[in-house]
Amino acid sequence: MEKELVKHIVESLVEYPDQIDIHVIEGEKSTILELRVAESDLGKVIGKHGRIAKAIRALLSASASRTGRRVSLEILD
Question: Whole domain around residue 8: which residue ranges?
Answer without folding.
Answer: 2-76
